[in-house]
Write the structure tokens for this entry.
Amino acid sequence: MSPAAALEPVIGLEIHVQLSTRTKMFCGCELSFGDPPNTHTCPVCLGLPGALPVANARAVRDALLIGLALGSDLAPRSIFHRKNYFYPDLPKGYQISQYDQPLCRGGHLGDVRIHRVHMEEDAAKLVHIGRSGRIHGSDASVVDFNRGGTPLVEVVSEPDLRAPAQAREWLELLAVTLRRLDVSDVRMEEGSLRCDANVSVRQAGSEELGVKTELKNMNSFRFIERGIEAEIERQSAILEAGGEVEQETLHFDPRTGELMPLRSKEEAHDYRYFPEPDLIPVDVTEEMIAAARSALPELPAARAERFQDELGLHPDTARVLAFRLELGDYFEAALDADGAEAQPLANWVVNELVGQLEDADPAESNVAPEALARLVAMVEGKEVTAGAAKQVLARLVAEGGDPAAIIEAEDLAAIGGDDGELAEIVARAIEADPDAADKVRGGNAKAIGALVGAVMRETKGRADGGEVTRLIREQLSL
Amino acid sequence: MTDVTSLSAVEAAERVRAGELAPVEVFAAYRDRAAADELNAFLWVADDAGDAADPATSPLGGVPIAAKDLFCTEGVPSQAGSRILEGYRPPYTATVVRRLAEAGAPLLGKTNQDEFAMGSSTENSGYGPTLNPWDRTRVPGGSSGGSAAAVAAGLAPWAIGSDTGGSIRQPAALCGIVGLKPTYGACSRYGMIAFASSLDQAGPLARDVRDAALLFAHMVGRDERDATSLEFPEPVRLPEAERLDGLRLGVPEELSSDEAGIEPGVREAVEASLGLAEELGATVQSIQLPHAPHALSAYYLIAPAEASSNLARYDGVRYGLRVDDYDTLLEMYERTRAAGFGPETKRRIMLGTYALSSGYYDAYYGRAQRVRTKISEDFRAAFEDVDFVVTPTAPTVAFPLGAKTDDPLAMYLSDYCTVPMPLAGIPAISIPNGLSEGLPVGLQLAGPAFSENRLLDAAYALEQAIGFDGSAVRA
């Protein structure tokens, strides 16, 4: 093999999304998270003899919505298959899934192509009792069927990703897109979004794919990036040493950074897929598509583009606002309130507001979007300095209210302009620190800082720093 | 006073509704007979009628039903004839059983069957074979052999069974009663322990055609719990036809030939009844079902394939049998299933698993599905020319216990004439067609989907003309 520099990773993702429908995929049990074990079960999701599945129409609609959002081709008729294998979390001995006739094929999200989107049911949850909480060394394993039968949508990408960070970013885009569709909680830590990665490495420029491995169930965005990184390193090392990568399924241990084999190709299951005879085909009518289409909101990628193209936002700001839905919504509400320019308003939302609220949803804070818009407009109009405005914002965060009233009450209005008040303060500062004034006159530009600082102390931040500097230089005849 | 068990179910229900007969009397009479069952027809018998609808105002008048073991009945053993479900009492009741209870037919008991409905003699039951009331050294047919024997012997006024490849019609024929396999989807499968989902269909077994029609009338209908169920397009009527004027009957060459293994006595009985049909105004013609000879092969790929998947849930994890001696999960699965399933069930699980295996799917399962389509097309073409297809139900009369247990293929041939209809999803009825060597023979009529009312009419007219009397075995 050629040196490492010539190797190129090829990454595809398989994402399982738990839908947030009211009921399960094939029965009327309500979905739950964190409820006492086995309290949301019935003959159908327990796989009792004689019980039959009936497809959840809302889940089909949600899957169609996802397909539409990804620009997939929607099959007018798709069917369910049975995927047969034995495991205690699979009460029927098969999972109802879709196989060669999925609901959606093709499409793309960003510059990554979608291979397919299909519907299936989630397995139950195995709980291993014992010190480790893992299957090895446990005293017993028990099954909680609350999760069993939760509707899942599986999104499979084409192998279009080329770097771990890119994979992570793309997954974040998919997650925020799904969140905007309001079809899933999209919480990796709770398992409502799960991602497997197919990773291979090949010589850069080659059209052929290398032998791939599958990385299973990495439960955070960070672990996905790290897991893929580790796997690329592992495969590259094997290839550079002249070895061959073995096709296998690996589990990434985030604590050790190691990749543990789960099962190899020799043990690969023969799932004996065949059409599920208990269900009728899913016929997607024009009406169903129209209904889903009308429920389709503006998606984050399109929103980021609109923020850039129509509002002229910087791409980074646009992306942050578009990908944190609550920020984007708040920003647009503030923009509607009028008064502030888009980019400064966006900066205030992304930097100052987020800085003070951290992860909290601004819509639920004390800061009304109109209040922020007014404050930013006042900053832009030099009615208040940025520094003073931050104090105003802190008051808004603490107790809400009108920024103009706060400025008035706290005497935070900008000093400067034409009334000569600021010029007098500057003159007093120069008088009070003749050394600094001499140094500035002598060409030591840095020395001006002491004078500016003095003015700012005196004005409690109400003066504009640029204006203060201008006045100092003017009074020193520079 | 007449013994209530000598009344047909229709008569008994009418008398109850007219206030001439106490429903407890009907239930008690059958309960006593069922409890004294010497045929091993019942696996469980009810103590009382439970809380079914008020007999006096309900259409089925409190006349109780016997239900094949594979119908789930809440709190009552429902084992599908298998040791792997020994003692299993479901937390819910199958839709058809519930509907019948709501229509006034309480549960009398659960009847024996071939394990998971896999068999044609009830000898594959995990609970011992059922005996044929006409000759206790012979099989009652299967898989609904317990239901058929119970009705024939007067241990139950009527019963429900399930038919996948002939499991209602063939035992009905071998026991001298009426059995109807409805159109696929006419009766809900919800709560019916599955054998082969795309073929399984519940249906009535009854002493006569009118009883079968009345029971069937309260089994049908769309069930939102069964996605494959359909609304029956018209009310099911009690048949009254006396003539068959203008009715065109087709006799398929493929199901009458020597290849079908039809015994001479059975063949003569069919010919005699075709003669009666002509006297009643019907015309009889020979027709072709070119793919019918392949039906059995297709059936023995599709049914086991579905069964191999349907029976995967019996893994010892949650209900039914779990062996004690295992160290690993795999051992628990293997030993539980080895101990719980009988040989025929294991054979079909293996057949089906093989047929679905990667690399063999197209050659076996895929090809069988194509044959199935051809068989449906054959019937569709035949029904352009004739109203109904007529065949013997089973090629032979009831055979001796043990005669075919060592020869699965010979056993499978019992279903030669009954397997094509479920593959096409169409209804078929078997009615008693006289005796051969002192044993009942069955006549099968099959029609297009949802032609049950017309089928029941024709069957009723023929039944009157044939004049079969099964009362001797009910004594």
Summary: The interface with chain A takes residues 70-72, 78, 80, 85, 88, 90-92, 94, 189-194, 196-198, 224-228, 305-306, 308-309, 311-313, 315, 317-319, 329, 333, 353, 356-358, 361, 365 of chain B (CB under 8 Å). Chain B has 14 helices and eleven strands. Chain B has a mean pLDDT of 96. Residues 4-242+451-474 of chain B form a domain with the Amidase signature (AS) enzymes fold (CATH 3.90.1300.10).
